[in-house]
Amino acid sequence: MNRTDSLVRGVEYPVGALDDATIISSYIMEGRRVVVSRYGDERWLFVNTPTNQPKGCRQVYFKRFPERFRPVVKAVLYRYMTRGRVGMDRPTDRVIVKLASDLKPFIDYLASLGIARLGDIRAETCQGYVEACRRHVWASKTGERRLKAASLGHRLCAVERLHELSQYTDDAMPEPPWPDTSYSHIANLTGRGTSYRGGKTPLIPDEIFSALFQRAWAVIKGAAPILNLRDKWVELKANEGQEWNKHVATKRLRKFLQSRNWAGPAKFGKAVRDIRPACYIVIASLSGCRNHELAFLQSGAVRSTLEPSDREGEEPLRYWWMEAKSTKTGEGVTEWMIPEAAVTAIRVLERWAAPYQADIEREVAERRKANSNDIEIPAALKHRYAVFLGAEPRRGNQVRTLSNQQVNNDLRRFVRDCELSWDIASHQFRRKFANYAARSQFGDLRYLKQHFKHWSMDMTLGYALNESQEMALYAEVQNELDNIKSEVVEIWLEPGAPLAGGYGENIATWRGTNPVTLFKSHKHMVRSLAESTSIRSNGHAWCTADDNLCIGNDIERSRCSGCKNAVIDVRHRPIYQGLLTHLNEVASCDDIGPSGRKMVKRDQQRCQHVIQSLDGEAPRMADE
């Protein structure tokens, strides 16, 4: 893993004398410095960006800015990359490129007003820019569109940064753009009534996700014979020792496939291509990784550890770990705990990617032969062990890590082939993972409890968090958990909502005392109760105990009816009705004995009490 780091790495930005020869970006490749961009260049190409970034997202092209502003924009960006903002760390390459992109509309606006220097900007100029952004409309396939609050915030934040950073140049903005407020307030990103809530990633519906995952898993399970056939074809082509034109290659491939009972090149090509998005779906779903983190995934990235079982006599537990990089929040090299199904998908993908990795090796060898200082050599080496690879037809089938857009195109084709109606995107799998992880203790999915062998989410998070893992993912899981708990409590606190169980009956009584007067609002009351209460589902009740000692959580489910830790609502009613029906059948048996009949009677009464609390009237039992 990360085998290229010792051979190819971007160097830190220098801080020193500023002239056109000052190095902006460079590689250290096998002990030699290879310069990529200098201060005087019209284009600054950055090298420390995620590998899934296309070239356009890794560069600042200064010819796009009005000529009169290019010197100050360069000076501002250089100050930003070498010093950062006051009291903050230096930005990543990705953030530098984003600032340049967000500044472009403001600089164009200044030029449209005839302003030639930042020093001529006044507060009314900036206020006019705010209004221009709010009026900005452009056409799309779905009709006219305007800037969303978050996009407006990015643009206005860039103006604030321009003011701060320009103070270190020869052309400084004389005053803050909006002295009495901030970009976030203007863009309505803060306070009550905000138009931006965050977390707007749509949650894939369970039925869509289930069908998509099952299809992806089926592709992975059937990948071996397809890859065997592909590898055999690659071997045959290599043995020929000559390049075929497209027509000859297609004709020979068709003959090769027909001899092995395949319909033709088109069907075979699709079968091979489907493996890549199938692997992405499984790995992303079971790891919760962001797209750029999966882009950093390389061959040999999986390892396992053995942990002693907490049950005497059981075999040690094997845990699987996947290593990659995470740059969004600065974690760097990071590990994720994954189940064995994700390991299977990674193994298949490693084999799928092998010919593409070989293409990169050949490209590097050819470039070295032609020019050992070719800056494309270190660029290619960053991708040579990656597994999410693809050929770029517009670049002579050059092989590189897939961009986020390419991944999304892959996923959309896969969804269409599954005849599903959902606008899929790569980032949705992270939200789905966090949601499933949070719901695991609510009875909908027992993945974390069963795989990590832990009872509660808190135990799982505590075990999983270590210095080499990505913290943000677990924060998102906790956020989903908090949201789900709030939804559950919201139902409990609805006026008149029937509740059973000892804790549920207490809530119903407390609810009748108008407790909202103790809180700022109903929403605050719901959130407070959700945060202060341990809530998980055992399938037939909500258990608020902070341990796993309640016998109602295991073999004696009817005990939850009177347990001080249990809340039973209308969603659980069918379970108790079903229990009562089965108990009535058992009660009619002649061979259960006096003690058995006594136990059945007790459990019937418990179920009857629950149903009566939820319905307002008691159901009949078999002997009534």
TrEMBL record:
Residues 243-476 form the Tyr recombinase domain. It comes from Halomonas alkalicola. SUPFAM superfamilies: DNA breaking-rejoining enzymes. Keywords: DNA recombination. This is Tyr recombinase domain-containing protein.
